Structures are given as C-alpha cells and as structure tokens.
Amino acid sequence: MNSVGEGCTELKREYDQCFNRWFAEKFLKGDRSADPCSELFLKYHTCVQKAIKEKDIPVEGVEFMGPNREKADS
Amino acid sequence: MRTFSGREIFPFRALVSDWSTRALRWCVRHRWAGPERQCSRTNCGSGAVFPSGSRALNLYNTTRAMKIWTSEHVFNHPWETVTKAAMQKYPNPMNPSVFGVDVLDRNVDRQGRLHSKRLLSTEWGLPSIVRSIIGNTRTCTYIQEHSVVDPKEKTFELQSTNITFTNMVSVDERLVYRPHPEDPEKTMLTQEAIISVKGVSLSSYLEGLMASTISSNAGKGREAMEWVIRRLNTEIEELAITARGTLRTPMAAAVTEK
C-alpha cells in the first residue's frame, strides 16, 4: 500500500511492519508494553505531514501526539 | 410508507423497506431510508418526527436530503483474527479505489484502548456523467478515519468521513466489530452510513448511486476481509513450515552423527 506522499512509502512500510507485529503479538494479547515503533513512526510522520501540506489536504484536528503512551495508573 | 419490521440494531428506525434489496444473502440485512424522508442528523433516530410533505425544493436549504444505510454481517473467525485483518485491510483486490493509507496519529489511552487516526486516499469509480460535473482531474477523494481498539471489551470501532468534496456530499460511516453474542468463535460486524447530498436535481440520483455504491463496497469490503484473513493464515502456515524445516535439519544431523 502506498503512502499519500510518494517518497514516504518505504518509511510507511517499515513502520507498518513494526506496528502490525506489536499489535498482533502484544497489544491484542493484553500485553500493555509500549510499542517499539516510536522512532520509525516519527520519521514516517514527518514525511507524511510534509506531503499533506504540499497537497493541501484538509486534514482535521490532528496534532502530532506521536506514539505517546498514557500508562494507566497502577 | 411501510416500515420494515426487523430487529433494530441502532437507534435509527428503519424507515422504508426497499423490495429490491430484499434479494440479499441471508446473512446480511440491509435497511434503507427513502429519499423523500428528510431529517437533520440530530433528529434521525427512534421517535423522531419527520417533516411531512414533499422534498425541499430550495437548492440552498440547510436541510439536506439524506439516506441512511445499515447492515450486519457475521464472519466465521474470532474477533482477534478479524481485527488484525481489518487493521491491514488495504491493499486488497476488492477495493482497488483505495490507493493510499497513512497513519496520522496513534496513541493508547488511559483505559488501554488504541486510538488511530488515518488518512485514506481514494479514487472514486464514478460514472462519467458525474465525473463530467465534478471535473475529470478531481476524482481523488480523501477520507479521515478514527478507530478505537479495546482489547478488554473486544471491540474495534471505526468512524470515517470524507474531508474533500464536503460542499457537495457527506458520507459518514461507522463500523463496529465485536465477538458474536452467541458464538465467541465468530465476529459480528455492524455498519452504518449516512449520506447527505446538497442540491436537488441530482440529489436523488446521486444518493441512490452512493447508496448502492456503499452497499456494493460493503459487500466487497467483507470479501476483502476474508481475503486478508486467508492471506494472514497462509503467512502463518508458511512460517510454521519454515520453522519445522529449520528444526528438522539439526535434529537429522544429530541423529546421523550417532
């Protein structure tokens, strides 16, 4: 699957692979550990934001929060 | 107009039964609201009083003609499998119009639910008459989607809306995947879409077109999910075969050494 920004597709693939693995093997099984994909997401996200600005896509209300985790109080 | 009696899934009341849509696969139920019904988004619901009379003739009236569509489907796979597949739904051969998917934001909230905001880039497969009105070069549509996965409650909810062509049409969709209430090895998908079109002369035509497109896309979407699930299962099997093969080699070597 491509990214909206042509140059971001490779970064997107790397992030997706990382995320899908964590999602299936950890998150869905109840493991609350943070995903290890923050760095990959940051690179990918920066690229996408630039592409969105260039293409003037009217994305609503998205502030970059990044893959921050708000851990539940234990 | 006769109302379609059937189990209500959402607060939306089934407004009109469309006999042509009765010819459906037995596991899918569709309900349609007629184009003559007009209501704003806030008063479309159970107990709502619809304005009587004919459809609005004023082109620039704030009341828009709307069509509401709901559907239910059962997948013969457990919720986790369906959720994984739904997360990786694109690309798939049944939805060729989606040519880009991007994650805009993702985070886990205090309750442990995963929120994702995504941007879908699509190319509408519009008939040429509609394309000639909108413009040939402007058939690229962007959709923004917000989804929440709750691994404890086992729900995966997605809401999406178009963020381009909003001055002409608004398509809001909501999908919820949860385990089937009677069989935990199955998953129930409930879908709804609200379409509103501005303008009068083409509104009924466009609404009908959009509604049937949504219905046909929903069918393709379900096929797409089955396709993705099969692909994921094949990958897992191949991994298992490779792993067994890798184990067998040192074991065989150990045996022959003896």
From TrEMBL, chain A:
Protein name from the UniProt record: TP53 regulated inhibitor of apoptosis 1
Protein's UniProt keywords contain Disulfide bond: yes
Organism of origin: Cyprinus carpio carpio
Stored InterPro entries: MDM35_apoptosis
Cellular component terms per the entry's GO annotation: cytosol; mitochondrial intermembrane space; nucleus
Pfam families: UPF0203
Family: Belongs to the TRIAP1/MDM35 family.
GO annotation, biological process: phospholipid translocation
Source species, domain of life: Eukaryota
Record bears the keyword GTP-binding: no
Reactions mediated catalytically: a 1,2-diacyl-sn-glycero-3-phosphate(in) = a 1,2-diacyl-sn-glycero-3-phosphate(out)
GO MF terms held by the record: phosphatidic acid transfer activity
Keyword vocabulary terms for this entry: Disulfide bond
Automatic annotation (TrEMBL), chain B:
Source organism (scientific name): Cyprinus carpio carpio
Annotated ranges, domain PRELI/MSF1: 66-237
One Pfam family, short name: PRELI
Domain of life of the source: Eukaryota
Database matches in InterPro entries: PRELI/MSF1_dom, Slowmo/Ups
GO CC terms: mitochondrial intermembrane space
Protein name: PRELI domain containing 3
